[in-house]
Amino acid sequence: MCRWAPDGLPVCTIPGYQGWPGMASDGAGGVTLSWCDQRSGPHGTCMQRIAADGTMAFPANGIELFPLDGDECGWIVPFAGDTVAAWIMQFTPSDTMLLAQLVDASGGEVWPAPVTVVSEPDIYRPVAARTGGDLVVAWTAPGALGYDVFAQRIGPDGTVRWPAGGVPVCT
């Protein structure tokens, strides 16, 4: 039995570019989607949660996370019933940050401000996973002999638990 429209559901119908989608189960038969969007600048990170019955949980066309004058693109991971968004924000080629924000079931940002996971010139696609009540975000960055992998642990209250810049996983 198809619960959604046979031709799918429009998630974002704002004119302009939307791409690089990401998706995570919400644990209740629905999904949380993320995508890069040019609604208010070069690229922004947007999210929408779709319930199992096809209803949208966030406002029409999704919510935009941390809109700034920078080029950003993000990914999501389920986190204890909520969703964590992790995205890369590039202000200039030498000013790049990896940020994270906890988003609740209604689309509200839980932490007072996005958490800066790391700030360095070259950061590439982050991945994240839950462990206990914490979130671990990993990313790659250029190293002496290629690319190195680093990780940072963030508590459920947004507190960074490991040293600034993360810990090396593989260098």
Which features does this protein show?
single chain, 4-stranded antiparallel beta sheet, about 170 residues, about 0% helix, mainly beta
Summarize the structure.
With 171 residues, the chain is an all-beta fold. 0% of the residues lie in helices and 53% in strands. The protein has strands at residues 18-25, 31-37, 44-50, 63-65, 71-79, 82-92, 95-103, 115-119, 124-131, 134-143, 146-154, 167-170.
Enumerate the spans where pLDDT stays under 50 for 5 or more consecutive residues.
none
Mean pLDDT: 80
Structural class: mainly beta
Can you give the helix content as a percent range?
under 10%
Relative strand content:
over 45%
The gyration radius over C-alpha positions equals: 16 Å
Q: How many helix segments?
A: 0
